[in-house]
Amino acid sequence: MTRRTVMHYADLGLLTPDQVTASGRALYGPYALRLLRDVMDLRALGVPLDEARDMVTLRRATHTLDGTYRRDWTRDDIPLGDERLRAVHARLRLLQDAYARQAEGLARFDRWLTKRFTGGDLPALDIGEGGEEEAAESGAPESAEKQG
């Protein structure tokens, strides 16, 4: 991510600095960086900037500045109209459906590879954070060649 992109996102209202120095330098804290990561992920998924901005706006309205969920938020706290909220909801549903289809395809491929290269005795991988490390710690072979 370039400085220019961060500045552009700030100009569009996607990011707000936690602090601005006397010289005008914007300083972003952990929550702003989390929102930036969310925007980057959304953009990588093909979500247009205006819809990404709506998603950031929704998150800001329902979370505190440190990123914790606000249980006391009301509909009045959300500056998006019902039409924009329906568009955000439709986009999220499309993304979830696409992920579900991809997850099914990846699971089938994983089962096939497991059967093909290990005879079916390879433990399932946890693809969450650190999935590679978990596979190595579980004693899973690094490649089919080492299986023999």
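The above is record 1. Record 2 follows with the same two-line structure.
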Amino acid sequence: MMESLKDWMALTQLYADYARTVDSGDWNRWPDFFTEQCLYRLQPRENFERGFPLATLSFESKGMLKDRVYGIKETLFHDPYYQRHIVGAPLVSKVEDGRIHSEANYVVIRTKLNQLSSVFNAGRYIDEIVATPEGFKFASRLAIYDSEMIPNSIIYPV
């Protein structure tokens, strides 16, 4: 499916760099993983499988992602927490019209100060990735989580 081992390594590096960035809280860098016209959606599996549009978070451009970053850093008040992503190897389903269609399972562990770590969110990423002069970027990232029950707030990107 992939044209070369170099492309496979770049794709795998994109997934690893993304996880490291959101785990480290480097929010200013998060939008850089996406194209200008992009889609980022955090959606329950039930809604996704039934074709329902309702999502927990839905952003349709890099500008909207930057808006979320501003909200995280400047306006949202919440208990601080750390998150740690465990992401499976991306499975490429097809490469078509310059887009890599891939999927990977993920688990996010959340640790609040002075509390035990717990599973915060688990599911799969469904991605469309394009090559840009700066390297691979997400044109679309759907984070489809398995549980219908979620914590009362999701502040940080998954």
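The domain at 5-145 is CATH 3.10.450.50 (Nuclear Transport Factor 2; Chain: A,).
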